[in-house]
Amino acid sequence: MRRAVPAAAALAGALALAGCSGSGADSGKAGLSVSSPYMPQPVSADMAAGFLTITNEGTAEDELTSVSSDVAGRVTMHSTVGGAMAEKSSFAIPAHGRLVFRSGGNHLMFEELKRKPRQGQTVTVKLTFAESGPLTVEMPVKSATYNPSTGH
What we know:
11% of the residues lie in helices and 48% in strands. It is built from one helix and ten strands; from the N terminus they run αββββββββββ. Strands 1, 2, 3, 4, 5, 6, 7, 8, 9 and 10 form a ten-stranded mixed β-sheet that branches. It is globular and about 40 Å long. The model is unreliable at 1-28 (pLDDT under 50).
């Protein structure tokens, strides 16, 4: 019985440490992850769009405050409501919720392109949040007419 106690304590410690470790898809106390990122191959030489979903598995709301990429001079965030596009300085991500960037809705605009991304390449994007640590995402470049089956 005495051997079981140290073994149980070691197992409990290992499980606690495992719960604290992060994978590349998770960030900070809000439990943020990114899925389905993509950029349609831009038709313009100086501008492109980007889409993705940010999921918050955490118990606290967070906020996407900025986006950057080495492929663009600047990346702006936009909402589209009733066909009207408006630049936004941040987007809330509710606890146990999602923030979706999709064609015809919220989206990212890569402006002042330093190079024109081509289908089959990837673009590195850094997402910065108010509470959680930053997330770096590899965004694949798809055909200009790509329409994802995931709904965004």
